[in-house]
């Protein structure tokens, strides 16, 4: 990190792991400073001042002091807790973990001073608390975040020749929907309403997306969106694989 002075930012916890006897490494997605690897010293002791705040599904206001390899968390205050309605529902919990893991992978393409990714994560947590199909929120996050990163999907016109849709084939390597003339080997046959659902999610038309999100369309959209993300990242997203097995 390029920081030399302590700084304050909003953040969500991506993941944590124990370090030493009482410390904990905390990977944060901050609103204005991208991905920050930090250490919370003494946080595992019973008298820790802010240990319970540094957990997933919490929007925290953190004070950090930069170090050579790790920043040190010196203060953490809860802004909003999103865990209610998520952590006690396996499907929603798995979806929330998939959003966090995807955000970590996508954050490397997200520049500092760009709050988009943080805002999308917290908005996704809020929506997870009330939706029927948790996969729809994961897909919305992935579709919008990858579009913001510069490799979004074409979901109406053919991604290869731009022939006007709707089309009934999809391939992640090509960039989304493909017409019959352009479809490469291995393309998935897809209902045009599934691509319509994905387009609505990509453009944040949640009311319309929820209205048409049947179990069949939601499941197919999730398979295609997951294939799109995992085509572009170097390694698979473990949380998405867990969702597929549930």
TrEMBL record:
Stretches assigned to the DNA replication/recombination mediator RecO N-terminal domain: 7-82
Q: Does the keyword Zinc-finger feature in the UniProt annotation?
A: no
What are the UniProt keywords, alphabetically? DNA damage, DNA recombination, DNA repair
What job does this protein perform? Involved in DNA repair and RecF pathway recombination.
Q: Which NCBIfam families match?
A: reco
Q: Which family does it belong to?
A: Belongs to the RecO family.
Record-given protein name: DNA repair protein RecO
Higher taxonomy: Bacteria, Bacillati, Actinomycetota, Actinomycetes, Mycobacteriales
Question: Which gene underlies this protein?
Answer: recO
């Amino acid at each position: 990190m390029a920081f030399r002075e302590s700084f304050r930012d909003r953040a969500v916890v991506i993941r944590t792991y124990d370090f030493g006897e009482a410390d904990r490494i905390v990977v944060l997605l901050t609103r204005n400073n991208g991905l920050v690897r930090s250490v919370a010293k003494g946080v595992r002791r019973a008298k820790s001042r802010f240990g319970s705040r540094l957990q997933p599904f919490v929007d925290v206001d953190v004070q950090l002091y930069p170090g050579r390899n790790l920043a040190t968390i010196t203060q953490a205050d809860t802004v909003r807790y999103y865990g209610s309605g998520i952590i006690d529902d396996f499907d929603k919990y798995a979806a929330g973990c998939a959003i966090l893991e995807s955000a970590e992978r996508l954050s490397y393409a997200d520049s500092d001073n760009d709050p988009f990714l943080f805002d999308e994560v917290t908005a996704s947590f809020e929506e997870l608390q009330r939706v029927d199909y948790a996969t729809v929120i994961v897909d919305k996050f992935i579709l919008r975040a990858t579009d913001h990163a510069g490799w979004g999907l074409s979901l109406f016109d053919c991604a290869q020749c731009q022939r006007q849709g709707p089309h009934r084939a999809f391939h992640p390597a090509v960039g989304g929907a493909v017409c019959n003339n352009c479809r490469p080997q291995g393309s998935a046959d897809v209902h045009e309403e599934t691509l319509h659902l994905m387009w609505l999610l990509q453009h944040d038309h949640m009311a319309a997306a929820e209205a048409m999100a049947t179990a069949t369309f939601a499941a197919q959209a999730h398979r295609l969106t997951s294939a799109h993300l995992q085509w572009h990242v170097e390694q698979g997203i473990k949380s998405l694989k867990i969702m597929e097995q549930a």
